[in-house]
Design brief:
By secondary structure, the protein is of the alpha/beta class. It folds into two domains: about 110 residues, Aspartate Aminotransferase, domain 1 (Alpha-Beta Complex); about 240 residues, Type I PLP-dependent aspartate aminotransferase-like (Major domain) (Aspartate Aminotransferase, domain 2, 3-Layer(aba) Sandwich), CATH 3.40.640.10. The chain is built from 13 helices and 14 strands. The strands form four sheets. It has a seven-stranded mixed β-sheet, with helices on both faces. Strands 11-14-13 form a three-stranded antiparallel β-sheet, with helices on one face. A two-stranded parallel sheet has the order 1-12. Helix 4 links the parallel strand 3 and strand 4. Helix 5 packs parallel to helix 6. The longest helix has 21 residues. It starts with 11 loop residues before the first strand and ends with a helix. The structure holds pyridoxal-5'-phosphate (PLP). Pyridoxal-5'-phosphate (PLP) binds next to helix 3.
């Protein structure tokens, strides 16, 4: 008996990711598959890596694509740079900071955490005091904490970390492509991201970059790496030395390449401005409806908005109504913010004026039900 062809619904993805993708990106997925050692693939890979250097704001030679979603980039960062028994400091103010912590513990590191309530961020003075006291080998933080809507000032962390010569891992899963990451200027040593948020492609790949300082540290590593698949040296040997490592997903690579080309065509600054402008319009609209934002002004992620659930409103019912009546996906909060916030993404193709007003109309309707 043959199964029916799939007909997935076309949702309007106003959640914290994945985002909508442009038709050019979808078309790229259907292009002919080539093998992982095909010279054509390496041409695509080289161009993709160059475009990634542009969005990361880096000249790092080690800028490549890790197979898997954002968590795969996270695990590559932690597994390669956090050695067993070394001190690993995490700035913990949300769910993905907890995931970083968990990965550090699984690597056998001595984990220390600077904790803040979900939705708050870290200032330079307090960050410096923490790292001076703890003297970690590596620190990690989440640039745009998708679980809370808070945007961390990168330089507050990198400046503090430099004082004790610690490497800095930055999670740029939500920020890359939607707002400036500026890896080199800000002094980030290792950054990873995903293909399905600020870059607005399909999920499945994790852009990654590591500074020469970080790579020197990796070469001097005292303990062997337990991971094989996410061994950064092996991955570099594949991209630079053309030595087979794994069977890359060429369709996902074509799609990533196309989404990066779209970003380049729009211009990075134009794209950042567009996200910021529409974020401000959305916040104005939400506040006009009487909602309060969870994160203080000035510390909000432009592409993930987190209004508080108003008193007496059942957030699951609102989300269900949006999905069933308007075909709109948004997300709720989790952990300490479960039932307390909505998470509304405004990224890539949906970061525009008409989508903002379409969303606000539907949301107003959903809140009334
Ligand atoms: N880090 C952050 C900040 C995220 O928002 C996410 C996913 O939402 C991840 C890491 C994990 O990425 P993925 O779900 O692509 O594995």
């Amino acid at each position: 008996m043959s199964e029916a062809t799939l007909h997935p619904p076309t949702r309007l993805l106003f959640g914290p990711g994945p985002t909508m993708v442009e038709p050019r990106v979808t078309e790229a997925l259907g292009k002919p598959i080539v093998g992982p050692l095909d010279p054509y693939f390496f041409e695509v890979a080289d161009r993709t890596r160059e475009l990634l250097r542009l969005v990361f704001g880096t000249r790092n030679e080690t800028t490549l694509v890790v197979p898997g979603t954002g968590s795969s980039g996270m695990e590559t960062a932690v597994a390669n740079f956090v050695e067993p028994d070394s001190k690993f400091a995490v700035f913990a103010n949300g769910y993905f900071c907890d995931r970083l912590s968990e990965m550090g513990t699984r690597q056998g590191a001595r984990l220390v955490r600077f904790e803040k309530p979900w939705g708050e961020v870290f200032g330079y003075e307090e960050a410096a005091e923490f790292v001076r006291r703890e003297k970690p080998s590596v620190v990690a933080f989440v640039h745009a904490e998708t679980s809370t809507g808070a945007l961390q000032d990168v330089r507050a962390i990198t400046k503090a970390a430099r004082e004790v010569d610690a490497l800095v891992i930055a999670d740029t899963v939500t920020s890359l492509g939607a707002l400036p990451v500026s890896v080199d200027e800000a002094g980030i040593d290792i950054a990873y991201s995903c293909s399905q948020k600020g870059l607005s492609g399909p999920p499945g790949l994790s852009p990654f970059t590591a500074s020469p300082r970080a790579m020197d540290r990796l070469r001097a590593r005292k303990t062997p790496l337990h991971q094989w698949y996410l061994d950064l040296k092996l991955l570099s040997d594949y991209y630079d030395g053309r030595k087979y490592h794994h069977t890359v997903s060429t369709p996902l690579f074509y799609a990533l390449h196309e989404s990066l080309r779209l970003i380049q065509e729009e211009g990075l600054q134009n794209r950042f401005d567009r996200h910021l402008r529409n974020h401000l319009a959305l916040v104005r609209g939400l506040e006009a409806m009487g909602l309060e934002m969870h994160v203080a002004a000035g510390h909000r992620i432009p592409n993930v908005n987190t209004p508080r659930v108003p008193e007496g409103v059942d957030d699951a019912r609102v989300r269900k109504h949006l999905l069933e009546k308007h075909g709109i996906e948004i997300a709720g909060g989790f952990g300490p913010l479960a039932g307390k916030i909505f998470r509304i993404g405004l990224m890539g193709p949906l970061a525009n004026e008409s989508s903002v007003s379409q969303f606000l109309d539907a949301f107003r309707d959903a809140l009334r039900t």
